[in-house]
């Protein structure tokens, strides 16, 4: 666990900002720890949303509870424990807390009036203090980061009340609303649904509004359900209606299942509804703070804080200091002072004086020794800190002092606990469950007070006298929480695509941004209609962001994107930045407009784009990649106009034209000798060398390799504005001819093409099928050109070359083995070239089990393919795979093993997700479906080779296996006679089916959702106990001095977070990865491992491999589980079966896969154990985080 020595970003950077002063002191003896401010722990559902929804409905139907629905306001977390004790999620005394304090005071002034607000505010504050309560607010403001919309008014909403005393709980919604009414605090809108019908209507309403829901439509829908279910539903209205205060963009709703469905609860909510309505009548949304007239008795200096315009303040320099001044004026000498404590000599933080882990360990040591010095609250908090250390959770302890609110010399010690990784919350909760501990919750907003021996508890309240037993305990017998956070698409596209995708757009360009947006929409599983609508919108947003931005707006960043979004939204509604349909766009490819200066070509480029309906203008040729050029021809609407300078861009032009000259058209403006001389004369260049260089470059441009070279008159770049330039292009004869030529260049067949490929193994007969194929082979090509490309003859990267070929061809047959690892390349090829994919498979495929692994091809198929390879004449095969090739049989087996643990059904599913896929073309391979039994000699030789490569796909000691297979094939030649179908018959079937498929190609590819399960499994793994792995290491250390020295040198790394790659660290989540989602589909992951989850496996640790960068234990995995069912255990996908135990700085755990090779090259060491050491593990799935959880909302500091 870390004790960071640097100040966190969420803390002010200087002592002055903190209102602090440096001090040195004796180390205090901490005798009591108590909660200062807390918010709910991080909550993540372990079940799917569908399962939780079903459980909720089942419970409500059984009348065991009801559903509670509230709105999600988009803001930042602020906590208030009374007085000036305001906290943000991981800090205090910063912009978030100061804005929160001011807005809360303004709320009281708005509700109670200028004369009474301070007394009511103090009354509420004192109640919090006396009863040890913390109020948590969602602070919604335009000042502290941008979410889905700029709020109409700055406000806050009470979202939680924590009792920090002996009761140890958070208020229920009923209690929170009742408490809020007592002090006119602004709670959320809350709906209660206590019947099956109403609950089902809620989910149905969300499903119908998920992609279009706004504040108005969602609230109206929920209100309508209440009206239709009178007596079993209710609504308690907020003082701050979302549509009036935040706006019409709604982040989402939160649905909670609440156990308890008695009539009293409904009646209580009904009474709360009446009270809320009464308060709204007293304080309607239109209520404003009334400022007294001059000459009144009001204390204007004190009331200035509630008259402060925060938005105007934010426009000034040094916003945080302005806030501090406002509060200083209000509090005067009682202003809260927060100090970072530093040593007198070395300047280190108070961590050197109060080490929280040391404090906790000392408290627990004394407690376990029988001491009664510490109360139960202190012990429980010490247990939590001790657990954070033992679990190696990355948590920072920020230690502060707070000066007495009364202005005396006494002060309080505070410690803010910042948990850095969301996964730590689940890790801690599992620890409590596993150990059966009723421990303190791990809160998100988490501040504790440290009370030293001899100090008074300045926060003592009467409630403390009850029993300071277990603050906010996690009850082990607590029923399962059922909660759903359900977001709406209008908010999501703004926040998670337009805002969070901005860095991608600005760094990688529009195409990359559009792919990012497509990925998000696909993961969210939106409808085809929404997909079409929003992708068009994002193309236009991309165009806006890469065009000259309005001068009256600030630079475009994630903190200012909403101003630009609103500006763009208005322009988009008026037809600006609309991407023309492919039919409207009059050109394809890249049009380079080149002249002496890019600046003088600006109006011309815009005019040309208007005339050609080409919206993409690139002002820096260096930003264009080869991929961009390729897409500009392949994909409708992706044509580009680029400005180029004679002097600066020749190198970029030559680079792009090497591979894609056919897609580039160059338009010269004033580059003929006469115009050039005149332009150079006006430039008044005195440097003769530069003059000569410019003239030479102009000539080089005129000789540049491209599809077409055109010349516009110089006058085209000299018009006063864009409209005049458009007029010139339409009236000048030369210009008209150039524009007409450009409009006819690079026109391609926009109908979908076809990519035919072979997911097979060598010897399957694909080259024979592909021989002599051209347009004449098929009567149904319908003018689509056909090419066949043999993998062994293509120079360069195969799929990159095919992409270029598809510029002028529409049907490609890939004479190449395409194993599953290459499916993504075919998918990309189809996407880029607007093609449908079609795999070719042998008919009659059946699952085949060899060892513990499943394969989609039979051993008979493998044997027949191998026989064909061996029958090739020596040195005759262009790919050098024939009988003269050493280990050619093992090469065939290696291709077979690429399909390891892929069943026939899984293979077919994966093929359907390669681009937009047709059903596979199935062709006969065997003469009959009833095959004779494979000779035992052949079967054993093949199984031996397969099992060998299943253990190590790159195994080199294969000579014996190779010899056995060759001999077995040779000894059983009669078996292979008449085994396979005649080539002519197979070819006839192939040509016939392919011809029919070509004739059935559509004119447009319809969008389609991916096939398969919407799971988010990251890996399937065999998990081991960390302590047991440590025991293995200790055993080895006792036997091998070099291992002992290696790990002794790294002992200090055990306290480092295993997820922080910036540090040396031990891996505590020890596991052996069996499959990663980059290797297998989700369906395959479920099929192979779902039935094994929780099953134990008695593995054996056999060796330790280690280098300067990484260390791992090699493990031997048995063939079956250790349970009574004895399930077969699939082979791990990693060739090196291991458990990573240590990683160096900036080293990923996956680098341990390279250890065996590094041992061979003597970069790493390998220590074989004298005897295998038992190591029991259990199977589990590790899941990816949901998309929302991946959003690092930096505004919530």
Overview of this protein structure:
It is a single chain. The protein is α+β, with helices and mostly antiparallel strands and 1197 residues long. It has 41 helices and 35 strands. The strands form 7 sheets. The chain has a 7-stranded antiparallel sheet with strand order 30-34-33-32-35-29-31. Strands 21, 22, 23, 24, 27 and 28 form a 6-stranded parallel sheet that branches. A 5-stranded antiparallel sheet has the order 1-14-13-12-11, with helices on one face. Strand 6 (155-163) and strand 7 form a beta hairpin.
Helix content: 25-40%
Portion in strands: 15-25%
Please give the radius of gyration in angstroms.
Answer: 36 Å
Largest sheet entry: 7 strands, antiparallel
Strand numbers in spatial order across the main sheet: 30-34-33-32-35-29-31
Which segments are poorly predicted (pLDDT under 50) over 5 or more consecutive residues? 1-26, 293-298, 342-352, 460-479, 1008-1015, 1185-1197
Mean pLDDT figure: 82
Question: Number of helical segments?
Answer: 41
User: Which structural category fits the helices and strands?
Assistant: alpha+beta
Please tally the β strands and state the result: 35
Shape: globular
User: Gap between N and C termini, in Å?
Assistant: 21 Å
Would you summarize the structure shown here?
The chain is an alpha+beta fold. Helix 17 (502-508) runs antiparallel to helix 18, helix 21 (602-612) packs across helix 26 and helix 31 (859-871) runs antiparallel to helix 32.
């Amino acid at each position: 666990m870390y004790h960071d020595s640097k100040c966190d970003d969420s803390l002010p950077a200087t002592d002055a900002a903190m209102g602090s002063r440096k001090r040195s002191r004796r180390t205090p003896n901490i005798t009591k720890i108590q909660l200062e401010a807390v918010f709910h722990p991080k909550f993540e559902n372990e079940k799917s949303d569908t399962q939780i929804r079903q459980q909720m409905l089942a419970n409500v139907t059984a009348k065991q509870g009801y559903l509670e629905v509230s709105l999600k306001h988009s803001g930042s977390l602020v906590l208030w424990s009374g007085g000036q004790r305001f906290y943000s999620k991981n800090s205090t005394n910063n912009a978030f807390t100061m804005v929160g304090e001011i807005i809360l005071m303004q709320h009281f002034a708005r509700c109670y009036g200028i004369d009474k607000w301070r007394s009511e505010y103090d009354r509420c504050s004192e109640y919090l203090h006396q009863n040890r309560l913390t109020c948590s607010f969602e602070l919604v403001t335009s000042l502290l980061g941008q979410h889905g919309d700029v709020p109409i008014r700055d406000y806050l909403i009470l979202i939680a009340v924590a009792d920090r005393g002996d009761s140890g709980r958070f208020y229920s919604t009923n209690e929170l609303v009742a408490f809020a009414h007592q002090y006119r605090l602004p709670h959320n809108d809350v709906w209660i649904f206590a019947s099956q019908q109403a609950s089902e209507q809620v989910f149905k309403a969300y499903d119908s509004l998920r992609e279009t829901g706004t504040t108005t439509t969602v609230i109206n829908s929920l209100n309508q359900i209440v009206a239709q279910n009178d007596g079993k539903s209710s609504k308690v209205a907020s003082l701050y209606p979302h549509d009036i205060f935040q706006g019409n963009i709604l982040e989402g709703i939160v649905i909670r299942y609440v156990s308890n469905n008695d009539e009293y609860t409904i009646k209580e909510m009904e009474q709360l509804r009446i009270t809320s309505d009464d308060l709204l009548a007293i304080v309607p949304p239109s209520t404003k703070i009334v400022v007294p007239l001059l000459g009144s008795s009001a204390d204007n200096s004190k009331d200035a804080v509630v008259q402060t315009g925060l938005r105007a303040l934010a426009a000034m320099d040094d916003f945080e200091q302005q806030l501090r001044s406002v509060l200083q004026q209000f509090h005067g000498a009682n202003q809260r002072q927060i100090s970072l404590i530093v040593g007198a000599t070395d300047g280190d933080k108070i961590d050197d004086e109060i080490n929280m882990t040391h404090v906790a360990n000392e408290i627990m040591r004394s407690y376990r020794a029988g001491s009664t010095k510490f109360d139960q609250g202190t012990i429980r908090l010490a247990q939590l800190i001790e657990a954070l250390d033992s679990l190696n959770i990355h948590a920072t302890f920020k230690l502060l002092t707070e000066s007495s609110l009364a202005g005396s010399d006494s002060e309080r010690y505070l410690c803010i606990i910042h948990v850095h990784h969301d996964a730590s919350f689940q890790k801690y909760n599992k620890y409590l469950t596993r150990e059966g501990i009723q421990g303190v919750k791990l809160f998100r907003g988490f501040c504790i007070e440290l009370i030293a021996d001899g100090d008074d508890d300045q926060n003592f309240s009467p409630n403390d006298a009850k029993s300071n037993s277990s603050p906010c305990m996690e009850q082990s017998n607590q029923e399962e929480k059922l909660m759903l956070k359900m977001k709406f698409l209008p908010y999501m596209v703004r926040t998670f695509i337009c805002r969070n995708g901005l860095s991608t757009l600005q760094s990688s360009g529009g195409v990359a941004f559009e792919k990012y947006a497509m990925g998000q929409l696909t993961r969210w599983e939106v409808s085809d209609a929404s997909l079409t609508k929003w992708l068009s919108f994002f193309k236009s947003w991309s165009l806006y962001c890469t065009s000259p931005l309005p001068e009256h707006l600030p630079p475009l960043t994630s903190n200012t994107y909403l101003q630009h979004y609103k500006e763009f939204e208005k322009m988009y509604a008026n037809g600006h930045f609309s991407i023309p349909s492919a039919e409207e766009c009059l050109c394809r490819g890249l049009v380079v407009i080149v002249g002496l200066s890019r600046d003088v070509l600006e109006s011309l480029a815009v005019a040309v784009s208007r005339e050609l309906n080409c919206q993409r203008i690139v002002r820096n040729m260096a930003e264009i990649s080869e991929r961009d050029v390729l897409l500009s021809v392949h994909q409708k609407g992706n044509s580009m106009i680029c400005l180029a300078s004679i002097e600066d861009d020749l190198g970029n032009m030559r680079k792009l034209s090497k591979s894609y000259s056919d897609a580039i058209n160059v338009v010269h403006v004033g580059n003929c000798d006469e115009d050039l001389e005149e332009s150079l004369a006006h430039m008044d260049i005195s440097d003769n060398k530069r003059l000569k260089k410019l003239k030479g470059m102009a000539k080089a441009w005129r000789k540049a390799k491209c599809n077409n070279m055109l010349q516009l008159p110089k006058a085209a770049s000299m018009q006063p504005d864009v409209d005049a330039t458009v007029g010139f292009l339409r009236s000048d004869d030369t210009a008209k001819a150039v524009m007409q030529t450009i409009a006819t260049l690079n026109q391609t067949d926009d109908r979908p093409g076809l990519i035919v490929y072979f997911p097979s193994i060598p010897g399957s007969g694909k080259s024979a099928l592909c021989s002599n194929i051209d347009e004449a082979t098929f009567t149904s090509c319908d003018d689509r050109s056909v090419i066949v490309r043999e993998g062994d003859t293509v120079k360069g990267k195969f799929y990159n070359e095919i992409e270029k070929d598809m510029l002028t061809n529409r049907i490609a047959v890939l004479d190449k083995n395409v194993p599953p690892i290459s499916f993504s390349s075919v998918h990309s090829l189809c996407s880029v070239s607007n093609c449908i994919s079609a795999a070719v498979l042998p008919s009659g495929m059946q699952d085949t089990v060899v060892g513990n692994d499943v394969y989609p091809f039979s051993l008979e198929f493998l044997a027949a393919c191998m026989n064909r390879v061996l029958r090739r004449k020596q040195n005759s095969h262009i790919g050098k795979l024939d009988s003269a090739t050493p280990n050619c049989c093992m090469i065939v087996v290696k291709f077979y093993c690429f399909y390891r643990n892929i069943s026939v059904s899984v293979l077919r599913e994966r093929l359907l997700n390669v681009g937009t896929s047709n059903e596979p073309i199935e062709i006969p391979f065997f003469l009959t479906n009833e095959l004779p039994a494979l000779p035992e000699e052949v079967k054993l030789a093949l199984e031996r080779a397969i099992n060998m490569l299943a253990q190590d796909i790159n195994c080199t000691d294969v000579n014996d296996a190779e010899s056995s297979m060759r001999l077995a094939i040779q000894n059983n030649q009669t078996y292979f006679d008449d085994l396979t179908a005649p080539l002519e018959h197979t070819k006839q079937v192939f040509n016939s089916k392919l011809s029919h498929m070509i004739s059935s190609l559509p004119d447009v590819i319809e969008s389609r959702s991916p096939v398969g399960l919407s799971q988010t499994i990251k890996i399937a793994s065999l998990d081991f106990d960390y302590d047991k792995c440590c025991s293995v290491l200790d055993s080895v250390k006792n036997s091998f001095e070099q291992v002992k020295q290696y790990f002794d040198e790294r002992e200090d790394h055990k306290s480092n977070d295993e997820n922080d790659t910036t540090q040396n660290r031990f891996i505590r989540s020890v596991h052996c990865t069996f499959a990663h989602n980059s290797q297998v589909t989700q369906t395959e992951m479920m099929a192979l491992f779902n039935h094994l989850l929780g099953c134990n496996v008695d593995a054996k640790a056999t060796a330790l491999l280690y280098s300067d960068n990484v260390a791992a234990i090699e493990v031997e995995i048995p063939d079956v589980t250790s349970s009574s069912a004895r399930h077969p255990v699939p082979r791990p996908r990693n060739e090196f079966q291991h458990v990573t135990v240590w990683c160096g700085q900036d080293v990923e755990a996956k680098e341990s896969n390279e250890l065996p090779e590094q041992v061979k090259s003597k970069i790493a060491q390998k220590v074989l154990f004298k005897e295998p050491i038992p190591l029991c593990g259990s199977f589990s799935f590790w899941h990816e985080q949901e998309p929302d959880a991946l959003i690092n909302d930096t505004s919530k500091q």
